[in-house]
Amino acid sequence: MKGKLILIVGPSGSGKSSVLHGLMKEHTEYTYPLSATTRAMREGEKDGDIYYFYTKERFEEGIKNGEFLEYAVVHQDNYYGLLKKPVMDSLENGETVVREVDIQGFDSIREAIAPENLVTIFITVPNKNELIERIVTRAVISEDELEKRKESMHKEFNRARDCDYMVENRQGELESTIQKVAEIIQSETE
To answer: How far apart (Å, rounded) are the C-alpha atoms in residues 190 and 188?
Structure first.
């Protein structure tokens, strides 16, 4: 394979989705593969825009057939997964593929992609209290859900050292964070 898969990793609330969306706007030269999901389509969404919408049966068939680089059950009932074929085809073509993943996905992908074709960037925040604040202010969640996310957050922070790079996403400095990530990608793909 000639291409590079860039994984943007980090705990919930760290801003990895915002970094990815910023890169998508500013760096159209990269490939941004879509995930498949079994969650219901929301108003205004279309299949193939931000997700491929699968039935649960179709998704589980894909799991059996090895169609996913990584997948997970999110919020107890919906599958989300990164399709293997589009990513591998892009890497074979020498493209730079950028994707955000959680730690579980990170581990699965590291087993499937050779280290020379993989770059991992961990998005962190100045302190864990700020992360909790971000989680609480962006959506209403139960106390039980908050505790689960805190537990996951601690585990995820412990995995930061497994990544190639760490970039701090400070409140109000998203553009700077996007720029730092873009510089890493450029240095790794030149």
So the answer is: 6
Q: Supply the DSSP symbol for 29.
A: T
Cα–Cα dist 157/59, whole Å: 30
Nearest to 92, CA basis, from 65, 109, 117, 119: 117
**112 Cα distance to chain centroid:** 16
147 or 165: which leads in pLDDT? 165
Distance CA 23, CA 17 (A): 10
Quote the CA–CA distance of 50 and 175 in Å, as a whole number. 22
Decide the pairing of beta strands 78-83 and 68-74: antiparallel
Number of domains in the chain: 1
Q: Is 51 left (phi over 0), alpha (psi -120 to 50) or beta?
A: beta
Q: What is the pTM of this model?
A: 0.86
How far apart, in whole angstroms, are the C-alpha atoms of residue 173 and residue 19?
11
Report pLDDT digits (tens) over 7-47.
Answer: 999 887 788 989 999 999 999 999 999 999 998 888 888 99
CATH number at residue 99: 3.40.50.300
- The residue segments making up the domain with residue 48 are 4-189
